[in-house]
Structure formats: structure tokens, C-alpha cells
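Worked example

This section walks through a single chain of length 532. The input is the sequence exactly as stored; nothing has been trimmed or padded.
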Amino acid sequence: MSSAASGAPGAALPRPVSRPRLSVVVANYNRLDLVQRLLGQFARQTLPPSDFEVVVVDDGSKEPAAPHLEKLTLPYSLRVETQANAGAAAARHRGVLAARGDVVLITDDDMQVAEDFLARHLARHPRGSRNVVIGSIRPDPAISDMPLFERWYAWLNNRIAASMSGPKRRAHGWQLFTGNVSFRREDYVAAGGFDKSLGQSEDIELGVRLEKAGCRFEFCTEAYVLHGSDHTSFEKWLKRAHRYGIFDSRVAGKHPDVPQVDPWRFLFEMNPLARPLLAAAVVAPEATRPVTQAVMGVARLADKAGLSKVAFMGTSVTYAMEYLRGARTEAGSLPQAARRAARFALTGGKPGQVLRLARALKEDALQVARSEYGGTGVKAVASMVLTSDGYRVLALQRLREAARGLGIPLGNHALRVAQTAVLGVEIGKDVELGSGVYFVHSLGTVVGGDAKVGHRVRFYGNNTVGTAKDDGYPVIEDDVWVGAGARILGPITIGARSRIGANAVVLKDVPPDSVAVGIPARIVPRKDVDGE
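Given that input, the structure is written out below as C-alpha cells.
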């Protein structure tokens, strides 16, 4: 690397270097051949080379990658960062901080990509959006030559992709994986980046924080990578399962409000026939290891007999048994493990849906009574419950959430019909409403798609919260008032404590403590921020 001497007489001024639109970050560890293959595929992208850069972080490989990679002739900008071995999370974090693009894409050194891979990711990040785009992972064509436990990963990836794809499904933060994901660099930095103390699961933990920060997650089937594997050791595969159990427990400790990251969910969500085996692995971790080996032996026999579904299900049980041993290790003792499993049952499992429903109804009642009925005494709360259509809308919404959690989609649908037909408010299946949201005049209000509405937001009637060009739905932060007839459209954010004027059409972000008025809305600061 060379640079012109600043201020030297007659020295040529350095030419300004344009910033790429996209930065690709790849962590590399002892996979020189594979990362060179990937870099060659980036050279054939349909996205112009000037629009992207690649940052490779060599995480202490035995043979340093930099001397080899810096000799490559590539049409795009390549930078190689080198560090002592500190783990994938630290390497990716270093790469993101070194990135110059507004959008960062992370993939693994053993992936292969199609020629439109980068263009498809970048197209999902229109200006002003806060999207996190999860691409699909497809198996390498040579997957049939891989061990059963590696082919099981491909089967699992297909199931995960199916859970995120389709017009009525959406991706979530806890589904983020670093094999194929892109996001705004500023969102990553604001969220604090990867937790480098996590030896595994740092990706889903970051995803949870990004979603909590208001980022919108979407799944893109077309932005795919091909994944092969150089893992051939069954024992190492089991050790990885054990480590995931340990670190998922730590993630659950950081985010107790996200049941999807709690390892104890397996005891309640897997096939009932498998649950005794999982429980046995927790109660007697060492004594049941021969059972785990036997289950995997049956899976291999089923695989040889062409019974793929049975083989994959047996592999799932094998993985879950070792995974829960890891969770038991992190718990420290059987009584502590039992307490954690019971806590999940009462908060994240089906019994917990009833408790969450009761807590949500109580919190909604108190907040609405305080803001609309002047207090939280018995008389005020009783009056509100008996007379307020706005509270009835919210109560039906909490019942719908409980129906979804309990796996009763027909109940959710019936309650939605009642909510729309009787109370005049249409709320989409994936909408998230904070506590104390109040529909002052409910008739004609639509909150659609996967819009997010914060706490104590007030809708004054005939409002639309939706999409402008089928490009995403709004995020409305806490304590916002939405005037009668107002429209809030597109993947925008309405900042906390803002006021949206009557009949305004809002198509761009509104900063906190602002007022939006007009068609299209113009934005001015609030003069009275302390309250109205």
C-alpha cells in the first residue's frame, strides 16, 4: 500500500477514494483454498466492481492468508486484516468495523455464490431502510457424499427457510445466521456488534438486539449460497452441539423475553416420543451417552435403507440430547437445570402463554385507565373495561397473540374477524402492539403487515399504517399520537413522542419529538415537548 506525502512540495494530492455501496466481510481460518475460490466468484459478480469491496479477516491461520491473497489480481477492492486467533465473532466484528460500505454482507469462507448474489442483497436495502436480509443456504451438489450429520444440516436449513419464506411469513432476529446475511453498518454499530464473549450463537444474539432496535428482518430465497463442508468427525459435531447448548443458555440469560433462544424449549417442543430421551440426557448426562450413540446408530441404519425422514429425525434427537447436556453443564446442577426448564414452561411454553396474557391485559388496563380515565383505582379501571371500545380492541389483540402462541391459528383468525367486524379495527397477523396502545375512535383504522407499534401510542380514528409500494411497514415508537385520518406508509420510523397531524400522509422518517403535517407530510419540531 502506498500513499502520497502530505504537504511535500510538488507532491501530487491523493485522489479521493469513492466509498463502495457494499462491503463483504469474510472471516477465514485455515481455509486458504476455499477463500480463494470464493474471492474468484466475487470477481464474476453482476454488481459493478466499483460498487463493492471485500474484507477478509484472517483469524490466526497456521499459514497466514495475506501473502497469498494480496497477490491475486481482482477487479474489486480487497483488503486483508490479520489478527491472532480470537474466534469467528471477533474476526467478523473487526471486518465490519473496517468496512467502508453503508451495507455490510457477511458470509463464510467455505461458501460458493452465484453471479447475482451481491446485487440481490443490495437491492433489498433501499435508501432509508433498516432491513436485515437473511439469504438462503443451499447444499453443495456433492452433498450426497457427506456424512449423515452434515446432510442433516442441509435438511434443517431447508426447514428454517420454509419457516421464513412465503407471503404470510416473516423472518426474526433469532433466525439470523452469519453464513448469509446483510445489514446497515450503522445499525450494527449502534447495536454494539457481535458479543465476542460468546463462543457460539453470537449471530442469533446480535439478531435479537437488532430486532429490538427496530430493524426489519426479511428472507431472500434468491440471494443464496452453496454450502459444502469439510467437517467429517462425528465426535466434533457432538462437541459443537454441546457448545451450542452452553452458549444458547447464555443468550437466553441476556434475553429472557425471547423464548425462541431458550435451549429448554426442546423439552417441550420436540416430538413427545423423543422427550423422555431428552429428559434422560439432562438427568443423567454421562450415563445416557450410550443411548445417544444407539439413537445415531439407528439413524445411520435408516439412512442406508433409504428412510431419509427417519434418519434425519434420529439425527435431530441425537443433536438435541447433546445440546441439552450442554445446557445442563451451563446450569451447573440438576436442580438448577430443573428450575430453568420450569421457568421456560411458565414463561415461554404453552403454560406461559396464559400467564403472559394475564399480565398483558393487566398492564394494558392500567396504562389505558391512567391516560384516558384519570387514574388506576378500581373505579377507573372498571369503568374503562366496561365502556371503552379502545380497550376491547387491545384485549382482543392480546387474545389473538395468546392463540398464536398456543398454536391455534383458527382462534386467531376468528378473533381478528371479530376485531374488524365489531370494533372497526383491522390489525394484521404479524403486527406487534406495545402495551397501552389506545384507539380513541377505532372505526376505520388499519394496521397492516408486520408493522411495530410501541407503548402508549394513540390512534384517533380512520388511520392507515401500511405499505406504500409493497416495500415494508412502519415502526412507530413510544408515546406517538396519530391524528384522525392520518396515513403512515412504508418502511419508515416515527420517532418517540411525535405527533402526526390529522389527514397527514407520512412517507419518510419522523425524528423523535416532531410534528408531521400535510400531504406529503412536512416535519417540524414540537414546541411543547413536555406534554400536551
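What to look for: The chain has 17 helices and 23 strands.
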